[in-house]
């Protein structure tokens, strides 16, 4: 058992509570949160604020080795079928692929992520590669695989945490029947798909199927969430809400390709669960602080007024629910994944609102304490 005490953002509403004592079991689960005044294993100074560890709701950790090699290219030229990314995967050695994954995992941990949801390329081989690297890092990687060559969906889903479809052109009725059967036995498996990322995909879907990508995927009951939805209209969003399909937006990645800023205000207004992800490492580093601040700043230029706290939830509480795991909040029964942010650091000092400070000003250098499943990853004052 381990105990941590200090000021904290507690529960699903990230309520700011002073002087709490969090007790974590040997298995890494939070078993008690109290106002009891007792000595703790880790007593954080009063300038610190404990928050849940960040969850990156959408990544492709395999392509870090393509950093800064696709800026200025279109989405298709960069990550399309015959794009730079796929050509690089085809021509790289196992060693190079490993080094690329390692680099992404290092960045994720350094930036305060304790979980990420990855769309993993290259079938079973890709899944195994990431799984074996994950054993060396204090982070939870939820892997949504995809088929390569003749691999069956069933074997991909059995070896991973779910299935991440590339687009609506990669699904058919037969596959979705198979997915449905697997989910009946394993409801914790996650099924997701990229949709409405570019106008090009929206038009292609309409001319091929006579309906939007979102309309199409809502015909199937297996989808837990969609990724992007930056070209989703009000009808699409109402369909997602009605079918309880959550949305993960990746505004930095959309900007990288010159695509539209996602309709985050409408998503929140419809009370659709919103997660934020950084998407391909080739387009931007997996950094929750940049992601949150860019989202809030760019929203203003797009006539959207978002609340800082809602954006903080989109990288903690919400993706916890989206992942169907007990993660993403400081609450009894949840995983002991947390960060201690030093509010006295120059980045944040004088801020009158912790939610704005965390989303628009803090960066990874303000993380003084980091814990994953009750184990200390970083504790500045104990150097
Ligand atoms: Zn993606």
CATH class of the largest domain: Alpha Beta
CATH architecture of the largest domain: Alpha-Beta Barrel
Major sheet = 9 strands, parallel
| Number of helical regions | 15
Percent of sequence in beta strands: 15-25%
Taking pLDDT < 50 over at least 5 consecutive residues as the criterion, the unreliable ranges are none
Strand order of the largest sheet: 13-12-11-10-9-8-7-6-14
Structural class: alpha/beta
Can you put this structure into words, describing what you see?
This protein has about 375 residues and is α/β, with parallel strands linked by helices. The chain has 2 domains: about 1-55 and about 330-380, Roll (Urease, subunit C, domain 1), CATH 2.30.40; about 55-320, Metal-dependent hydrolases (TIM Barrel), CATH 3.20.20. About 35% of the residues lie in helices and about 25% in strands. The protein contains 15 helices and 17 strands. It has helices spanning about 75-80, 85-90, 95-110, 125-135, 155-160, 175-185, 200-210, 215, 235-240, 250-255, 265-270, 290-300, 310-315, 315-320, 355-360; strands spanning about 1-10, 15-25, 30-35, 40-45, 50, 55-60, 115-120, 140-145, 160-165, 190-195, 225-230, 245-250, 275, 280, 340, 365-370, 375-380. The strands form 2 sheets. A 9-stranded parallel beta sheet has the order 13-12-11-10-9-8-7-6-14. Strands 1, 2, 3, 4, 5, 15, 16 and 17 form an 8-stranded mixed beta sheet that branches. α6 links the parallel β9 (about 160-165) and β10. α3 (about 95-110) packs across α4 and α12 (about 290-300) crosses α15. The longest helix has 17 residues, at about 95-110. The protein is globular and about 65 Å long. It starts with a strand and ends with a strand. The model has no long low-confidence stretch (mean pLDDT about 95). The structure holds zinc ion (ZN). The site of zinc ion (ZN) has 6 residues, from β6.
């Amino acid at each position: 058992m381990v105990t941590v005490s200090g000021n904290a953002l507690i529960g699903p509403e990230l309520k700011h509570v002073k002087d709490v004592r969090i007790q974590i079991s040997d298995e890494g689960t939070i078993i008690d949160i109290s106002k009891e005044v007792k000595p703790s294993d880790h007593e954080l100074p009063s300038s610190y604020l404990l928050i849940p560890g960040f969850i990156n709701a959408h990544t492709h950790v395999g392509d870090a080795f393509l950093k800064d090699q696709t800026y200025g290219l279109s989405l298709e030229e960069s990550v399309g079928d015959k794009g730079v990314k796929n050509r690089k995967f085809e021509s790289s050695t196992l060693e190079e692929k490993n080094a690329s994954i390692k680099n992404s995992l290092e960045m994720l941990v350094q930036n305060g992520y304790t979980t990420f949801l990855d769309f993993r390329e290259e079938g079973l081989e890709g899944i195994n590669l990431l799984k074996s690297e994950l054993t060396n890092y204090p982070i939870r990687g939820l892997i949504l695989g995809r088929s390569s060559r003749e691999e069956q969906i069933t074997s991909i889903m059995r070896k991973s945490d779910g299935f991440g479809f590339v687009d609506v052109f990669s699904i058919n009725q037969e596959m979705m029947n198979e997915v449905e059967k697997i989910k009946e036995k394993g409801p914790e498996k996650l099924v997701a798909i990229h949709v409405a990322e570019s106008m090009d995909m929206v038009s292609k879907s309409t001319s091929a199927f006579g309906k939007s990508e979102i309309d199409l995927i809502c015909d199937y009951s297996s989808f837990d969430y969609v990724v992007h939805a930056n070209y989703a209209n009000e009808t699409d969003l109402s369909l997602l809400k009605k079918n309880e399909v959550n949305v993960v937006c990746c505004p930095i990645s959309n900007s990288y390709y010159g695509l539209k800023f996602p309709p985050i205000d409408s998503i929140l207004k419809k009370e659709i669960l919103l997660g934020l992800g950084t998407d391909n490492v080739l387009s931007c580093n997996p950094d929750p602080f940049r992601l949150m601040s860019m989202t809030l700043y760019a929203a203003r230029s797009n006539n959207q007024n978002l609340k800082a706290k809602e954006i903080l939830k989109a990288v903690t509480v919400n993706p916890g629910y989206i992942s169907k795991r007990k993660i993403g909040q400081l609450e009894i029964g949840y995983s002991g994944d947390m960060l201690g942010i030093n509010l006295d650091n120059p980045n944040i000092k004088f801020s009158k609102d912790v939610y704005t400070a965390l989303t628009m000003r803090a960066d990874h250098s303000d993380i003084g304490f980091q814990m994953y499943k009750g184990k200390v990853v970083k504790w500045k004052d104990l150097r």
